[in-house]
Amino acid sequence: ATAILEEVGFEVDVASDGAIAVEKMDAADAGYYDIVLMDVQMPRMDGYEATKRIRELADPGKASIPIVAVTANAFDTDRNMSLEIGMNGHLAKPYDVPAMMRMLGELIG
Asked: What pairing do the DSSP bridges indicate for beta strands 36-39 and 67-71?
């Protein structure tokens, strides 16, 4: 995903696990990040828990950031769980690049 996004001009910041993703969101100014592509399966803290914690941040500008699940699981139950947790979208691997670009365009304008 990093290569795809950088190729079309996005600046990408990577967190190796969910805990680091939450720490980065908490430490950054609101608006620093435009969107989070959240891998569902990560060490230490999975993407579902990281999303819950980001949604609980005190700053509404940070807590409301668009978050998209990134997972190898493409079943409707996985998509529904992502949305129930508070994510704004769901991308299955391998990536459908045109679908990814449409979703990013919809979520970050």
From this structure: parallel
pLDDT at res. 57:
98
Confidence of residue 43 (pLDDT cuts 50, 70, 90): confident
Containing 68, the helix (H) or strand (E) segment is strand 67-71
pTM beyond 0.85: yes
Bond before 43 cis per omega within 30 degrees: no
40 vs 43: CA distance, rounded Å: 10
Tokens describing residue 68: 């998209």
Half-sphere exposure (CA, 13 Å, Cβ side) for 7? Answer: 6
Q: Which long-range contacts (CB under 8 A, 24 or more apart) does 5-12 make?
A: 8/101
Q: Helix, strand, coil shares of the chain as percentages rounded to 5?
A: 45, 10, 40
